[in-house]
Specification:
Layout: H1 6-19, E1 42-51, E2 56-62, E3 67-72, E4 76-80, E5 86-90, E6 97-103, E7 108-113, E8 117-122, E9 129-136, E10 141-145, E11 152-157, E12 162-166, E13 171-177, H2 179-182, E14 194-200, E15 203-211, E16 215-220, E17 225-231, E18 236-241, E19 247-252, E20 257-261, E21 270-272, E22 291-297, E23 305-310, E24 322-327, E25 330-335, E26 340-347, E27 358-365, E28 369-373, E29 395-402, H3 408-416, E30 445-451, E31 455-460, E32 467-473, E33 500-506, E34 511-516, E35 520-527, E36 531-533, E37 538-542, E38 561-562, E39 605-607, E40 610-619, E41 632-636, E42 641-645, E43 649-654, E44 659-665, H4 703-706, H5 713-717, H6 730-733, E45 738-747, E46 756-764, E47 768-775, H7 781-785, E48 789-798, E49 803-810, E50 820-821, H8 830-833, E51 838-839, E52 862-868, E53 871-877, E54 881-887, E55 894-902, E56 905-912, E57 916-921, E58 927-932, H9 939-944, E59 946-948, E60 952-958, E61 961-968, H10 969-978, H11 996-1001, H12 1010-1014, H13 1016-1019, E62 1027-1031, H14 1045-1092
Parallel strand pairs: 37-40
Antiparallel strand pairs: 1-61, 2-3, 3-4, 4-5, 6-7, 7-8, 8-9, 9-62, 10-11, 11-12, 12-13, 14-15, 15-16, 16-17, 18-19, 19-20, 20-21, 22-23, 23-24, 24-25, 26-27, 27-28, 29-30, 30-31, 31-32, 33-34, 34-35, 35-40, 36-39, 37-38, 41-42, 42-43, 43-44, 45-46, 46-47, 47-48, 49-52, 50-51, 52-53, 53-54, ...
GO molecular function, one term: GTPase activator activity
Subcellular location: Cell membrane; Cytoplasm
Pfam families: LLGL (PF08366), WD40 (PF00400)
Length: about 1100
């Protein structure tokens, strides 16, 4: 018997393991392609955030720097300056921001949070950071006040006490105003939380304190006692001073305003109920809703302004929220679209002891920001230059296109100018602080957002800015129901039937394809001329699923036809005539058949310059079952073809000839002996087909889910694009849906004639990639007359999970853009339209009828990249051998995958459901980047995440905001230069002149030495248990954020070395300057000595 030797076995294993990763699958060493992208080219970090701050809760203004700050309920801060200058920050705790206070013209901001913490932000760097924090442990913060040019912050609490914080050191003062000392000793009731604190404009030593219970106290800071108390029987919401310091106004919970004289605490000087009905018998007006805030602003040459929010009468049911402006005898009620969160008045001076001269009001609404011009009649609003209308209708899909053609942005801007509303204020936007960044990034970027109301918005996203260019309303193509009762019974969603679901856009040809939730597709062309379309071209497609035998293992799948004219034609190339749908034919109370979900308008359509509809494609009901929603979409302007897919099959439309070219089930795309074909399982036997037709909805969403709107909560909680292999069921496995589509020019097999051929690649939910070759007629008139021949070629490869993306590389590994047609004016003369130029791609579309390119190809000269939810593979064409394979994830699944171009190379970029963002090299799929960025907590992220070229990506992080990020090391390094400056050196305006007599008799503003009163020497130390001081990270600019990994450490080290070298250089320069100065001094001293050595003392 031969002796077993374990050592030889181990040596063998070692040799095998060391040899496996040396070279990719099926590639000889001489054929290896040099991959230009390496791991050092990648780094992940957030860049900017656009849109309206989600769930705003606080507002602040720096009137000197002209900056605006908004805090939110999730602890975010957004700071706005001039258009294009904005910044996003986030509190680590995520607690709601209850109040913001600028250190006016100091480049700092104080934020108070609902978790009873106070933070000091440094705004003198491009990415603001927290310098200090103070966490209260025994009392809850309700109000903060920071006087202009003071370093002492007043903090009011729920218990009614007031504490003082030094904003320089963020330490508590021993000086405290206790509630029981502020109110009368005879009063036994607690006055409630502090709702207002402000100092007298003319006497800094007098502080007014408003308690929620209805008591206002004038506190003398020096004597540490209450000077006056003003009591009213209604709760107080806010207080505002007259600039002379002799009067103040309070707003109350019964909708009334009380004006008090500081010398007369017995009763208010005047009581006003702005929206209350005045009874004839002289009694109190009827109570109204609470006035949540009031501001009292004076003018030098006219009546004061009293501006308030709330206070409407209770009988105004259904009336929109209002801002009321009272000026003299006139009262203007300005209705708002959303509830008012807060408002601030913009004034000519930051000093509270001078005439305010208000000129505008900034109103923060729950979903909008409005600035009202007070200086013009009618109080018009300013045109808002910020991209805050992103959520005007909920965003349902998003596409990002970086480095697109240079002429597309000017073209969209020119047609978008005509859509601008009129009636805005003629003055410039008043918030104009900060400076733009100095970045050199100059390539054009466009973001397209699809919305629930059927509209699309095109945004210029170049140079980390965002500006709306053009808006397209797709709902104009359809008839609108006037009421819910008038809604057609064929609609498949309860609300938002026009919502956009998918986009396919060709920037070069400016052809746009849009798919909506009602199983409708619209094809648009861009024109600079206005046209009137008398009849909208319409194609109706009937996608029908037939089963000949439920128990048969070789079920063919969907037998699909075109409706209504070609229902008897067996040919998949049968065309549908572009006729108007007959909604009454074959339709009864119980069965809806051959009718679309939406009704195309029958009247003429006036189409302005911009995108104009060319063709409408609608899937129709089949035997009482609604059509399945579109799951994938692609368009190619060089071929004049559009392809769509859903859970039942695929359809190809020739939008030039207005015909349906192909209408097949997924199973019919396989060839008879296809090794990759999976036999579909039999559906549940409890459901018997009716009349030979299987229920078209079987295995998909239930009727309740189907009727949900894409903007409903259900959409955010369940990802229904058949991507997730982790939630598959028996029903979903019975049907192989279409999940990815791609037009291309590929190398055909020798058995198919070889050469370059136009083709369509189809990815399915079961991981198969199916191909079909396209035979195109010659360009010109023949293209419009001769049919296109499409021939299914079977499956090319199968991967784990649903197919997400397919792309192609040439023999050198360079990304191949699909062929496209250059844009031409569709409404121009016939001679000009014939001059069409095609460019891009491996080759122009084939001109011959056979569709084969130039002869046979001896060896593989093209790569196909296929990415699924689980894997990525690269195939060599035309042999279809696997060059490389990478298992991206085993425990999770990909939500988005794209082949992108970066630094003259191509890579696969992936976003995984577990939050990882990864990149893989091409063609050998080496991992280049893997960062745990953002766990999937909201399906909105999955639905809107979009990669683009040059290392750019974005997603909707909230219903109102877009977060942009980069995975490019070059962009990360240049980000600091691209970001704008928030703080700019501005001279503080001069204080108001006190005048000769006021200075002589002491009538001007009284100054208080707060340091002597509140400092440690005068007030002592505060108890340590009251609040904990937490030093902030606040420091190194640009190093805070999402930068991770080795490159981030290298960047930090590099910056530290640069700073050290800079300091050494400065020290060397100072030393050289001191030496020069010393030499000069020695020389002058020697000259003086020589000059004076022979003089007598009296000669000096």
């Amino acid at each position: 018997m031969k002796k077993f030797n374990i050592r030889k076995v181990l040596d063998g294993l070692t040799n095998v393991s060391s040899a496996t990763p040396s070279q990719p699958l099926g590639v000889r060493e001489n054929d290896l392609i040099h991959e230009t992208l390496q791991s050092e080219h990648f780094q992940l970090c957030k860049t900017v955030r656009h849109g309206f701050p989600y769930q705003p809760s606080a507002l602040a203004l720096d009137p000197v720097q002209k900056l605006l700050a908004i805090g939110t309920q999730c602890g975010a801060l957004r700071i706005f300056g001039r258009p294009g200058v904005e910044c996003h920050c986030q509190h680590e705790s995520g607690a709601a921001v209850i109040q913001l206070q600028f250190l006016i013209n100091e480049g700092a901001l104080v934020s108070a949070l609902a978790d009873d913490s106070v933070h000091l932000w440094n705004l003198r760097q491009k990415r603001p950071a927290v310098l200090h924090s103070l966490k209260f442990s025994k009392e809850r913060i309700t109000f903060c006040h920071l006087p202009f040019q003071s370093k002492w912050l007043y903090i009011g609490t729920e218990r009614g006490n007031i504490h003082l914080v030094n904003v320089e050191s963020f330490t508590l003062s021993g000086y405290t105003i206790m509630w029981n000392k502020a109110i009368e000793l005879s009063s036994k009731a607690h006055p409630g939380p502090v709702v207002h604190i402000s100092d007298n404009p003319m006497d800094e030593g007098k502080l007014i304190i408003g308690y929620e219970g209805g008591i206002v106290v004038l506190w003398d800071l020096k004597s540490k006692k209450a000077e006056c108390r003003y009591t009213y029987d209604e709760a107080i919401h806010s207080v505002s001073w007259h600039h002379e310091g002799k009067q103040f106004i309070c707003s109350h919970s019964d909708g009334s305003l009380t004006i008090w004289n500081t010398k007369n605490p017995a009763r208010p000087q005047q009581t006003i109920t702005p929206h209350g009905k005045q009874p004839k018998d002289g009694k109190k007006p009827e109570p109204c809703k609470p006035i949540l805030k009031v501001e009292y602003k004076t003018t030098r040459l006219g009546e004061p302004f009293i501006i308030l929010s709330g206070g409407l009468s209770y009988d105004t049911v259904g009336r929109r929220p209002c801002l009321t402006v009272m000026h003299g005898k006139s009262t203007a009620v300005l209705e708002m679209d959303y509830p008012i969160v807060d408002f601030l008045t913009l004034c000519e001076t930051p000093y509270s002891n001078d005439f305010q001269e208000p000129y505008a009001v900034v109103v923060l609404l729950e979903k909008d920001l409005v600035v009202i011009d007070l200086a013009q009649n009618g109080y018009p609003i300013f045109e808002n230059p910020y991209p805050l209308t992103l959520h005007e209708s909920p965003v349902t899909c998003c596409e990002y296109c970086a480095d697109c053609t240079v002429d597309i942005i000017p073209a969209l801007y020119s047609v978008g100018l005509r859509q601008k509303r009129q009636g805005y204020s003629k003055k410039e936007w008043p918030i104009s602080g900060g400076n733009w960044g100095q970045g050199t990034q100059s390539y054009p970027e466009i973001v397209i957002t699809g919305h629930a109301d059927g509209s699309l918005k095109f945004w210029d996203a170049s140079a980390i800015m965002l500006q709306v260019l053009y808006k397209l309303k797709t709902a104009k193509v359809f008839e609108k129901s006037r009421s819910k009762d008038d809604k057609p019974s064929t609609e498949i969603v309860d609300e938002d039937p026009f919502a956009i679901q998918l986009l396919a856009w060709c920037p070069e040809s400016r052809v746009l394809c849009v798919a909506g939730v009602s199983a409708h597709i619209l094809i648009y062309r861009f024109s600079k001329q206005e046209v009137t379309t008398e009849v909208i071209q319409l194609l109706e497609v009937r996608m029908q699923y037939e089963l000949s035998d439920l128990d048969s293992p070789d079920v063919g799948g969907d037998q699909t036809q075109v409706a209504p004219t070609s229902s008897s034609s067996p040919s998949p190339q049968a065309a549908a005539t572009p006729t108007r749908p007959s909604t009454s034919s074959n339709n009864s109370d119980h069965t809806r058949d051959n009718v679309p979900c939406l009704k195309v308008r029958s009247s003429s359509l006036k189409q302005s310059a911009g995108y104009q509809v060319e063709l409408v494609v609608q899937l129709v009901w089949v035997s009482g079952e609604p059509p399945q929603q579109i799951s994938s979409l692609a368009i190619n302007s060089a071929y004049g073809l559009m392809v769509f897919g859903n859970s039942t099959g695929v359809g190809v439309v020739d939008y030039l000839q207005k015909t349906v070219l192909l209408n097949l089930s997924t199973a019919e795309l396989y060839t008879t002996n296809d090794p990759f074909q999976k036999q579909p399982r039999s559906p549940r036997k409890s459901r018997q087909p009716s009349g030979g037709l299987c229920d078209i909805n079987e295995g998909s969403a239930t009727s309740d889910d189907r009727c949900k709107s894409p903007t409903s909560d259900h959409r955010d909680n369940s990802f229904s694009r058949s991507r997730s292999s982790s939630v598959t069921s028996i029903d979903k496995e019975t049907r192989e849906g279409i999940t990815a589509l791609c037009f291309c020019e590929t190398m055909a097999r020798r058995s198919e004639g070889g050469g370059v051929q136009p083709a369509l690649w189809v990815g399915t939910s079961l991981g198969a990639v199916l191909t079909a070759t396209l035979s195109l007629p010659p360009a010109g008139e023949q293209r419009l007359l001769q049919p296109i021949i499409a021939s299914p070629s079977g499956a090319a490869v199968r991967l784990k999970g649903s197919i997400l993306r397919m792309a192609f590389l040439d023999a050198a590994g360079v990304f191949q853009c699909p062929p496209y047609e250059q844009w031409y004016e569709p409404n121009a003369a016939e001679e000009e339209r014939t001059r069409r130029r095609r460019g891009g791609g491996l080759a122009s579309p084939s001109g011959g009828g056979g569709g084969t390119g130039g002869g046979e190809v001896e060896k593989d000269s093209q790569f196909a990249v296929v990415c699924s939810e689980k894997q990525a593979k690269v195939l060599s064409l035309p042999s279809q051998t696997c060059v490389s394979k990478h298992n991206i994830t085993e425990t999770s699944f990909l939500l988005r995958s794209d082949v992108v171009v970066l630094n003259s190379g191509a890579c696969v970029a992936c976003f995984c459901a577990n939050g990882h963002i990864m990149t893989l090299s091409l063609p050998y799929l080496r991992p280049l980047l893997d960062v745990n960025y953002l766990p999937l907590t909201d399906m909105r992220i999955a639905r809107t995440f979009s990669f683009s070229n040059l290392g750019q990506a974005l997603y909707m992080n909230s219903p109102t905001e877009i977060q942009r990020l980069t995975y490019s090391q070059e962009v990360c390094e240049n980000l600091q230069e691209m970001l704008g400056e928030l703080f700019t050196p501005v001279e503080t305006p001069e204080a108001p002149n006190r005048g000769f007599f006021k200075g002589l008799f002491g009538g001007g503003a009284q100054v208080l030495d707060r340091e002597e009163l509140f400092g440690e020497t005068g007030a002592g130390k505060a108890p340590r248990s009251l609040a904990q001081h937490i030093p902030g990270p606040g420091g190194i600019e640009g190093m805070k954020g999402a930068a991770t990994g080795i490159m981030a450490d290298l960047a930090r080290t590099r910056q530290a070395l640069d700073e050290r070298g800079q300091k050494l250089s400065e020290a060397e320069e100072k030393t050289a300057a001191m030496m020069t100065s010393a030499d000069s001094f020695s020389k002058h001293a020697h000259e003086m000595m020589l000059k004076c050595k022979d003089k007598r003392w009296y000669q000096f």
